[in-house]
Amino acid sequence: MNTDQEGFANIVLIVIVVVLLVGTAGYFTFVKESGPVAQQSMPTQEVQTPTPSKPTESTEDWKTYRNGQYGLELKYPGDWTTENPGDPETFAIFNSPENQKILLDIRARKIEDYSYAEDIQISHYTKNDMQWPPQNNPPVSNLKKSTLAGYESYTMTISSKRNIYTTSTDKYTILVKKDDGIFMIQFGHKAELSDLSQKESKILSTFKFTN
Q1: pLDDT digit string, tens, across residues 148-204
Q2: Please, are residues 186 and 170 in contact by the beta-carbon 8 Å criterion?
């Protein structure tokens, strides 16, 4: 090989080496500046956690009230009391321990407390004693048609005032028509369904006719 050819070969070799060096340096510079490749994240799906409901009142230790004359029954807490007041229409009243203490105090002092009301009172009327369907006129308000224990019923608020010296007491009331009679369920000192305690709501849910 002559001198000119050797010189040309050396030049070509130098160019190739330079290109490789520049390419390698450029590659590492690009990688360094780019940094690690981030993984593409999937969109997050929001899941609404349901709000835990209030624990339901267990009726395991409750007592069962049965009335053979009118063919009905319901469950009530074991520490509540029930009695028949001997009224021509009202045949059952139910009281919580707190309300029972008030009642016993009233009886012991032989006074009339017009602000007192039983927690739950159940009465029976004939179709001649009460208008059916009820009308949304004073003392009745918030009249709504409903069903209870499979029978046509109406819910309402009844305002009662025993004399001119006492304030009006609003009672959440349910009227249920069965055969030729009308049953009335009243909650003392509770004006609306939303006012009922958890125990009272559970008692109402156990109400049923047995014949």
Answers
A1: 999 999 999 998 765 544 455 899 999 999 999 999 999 998 999 999 999 999 999
A2: no
* Cross-strand pairs, 132: none
Q: How far apart are CA 103 and CA 110, in angstroms?
A: 10
24 pLDDT more than 80: no
Locate 65 and state its tokens: 């009230």
CATH fold for domain 63-209: Protein Transport Mog1p; Chain A (3.40.1000)
Residues 6+ apart with CB under 8 A from 64: 73, 74, 75
Contact (CB, 8 A) for 187 and 197? no
SS3 state at 5: helix
pLDDT higher than threshold 90 for residue 6: no
Quick one: pLDDT at residue 52? 38
| Mean pLDDT within 107-132 | 85
**Closest by alpha carbon to 206, among 192, 189, 185?**
185
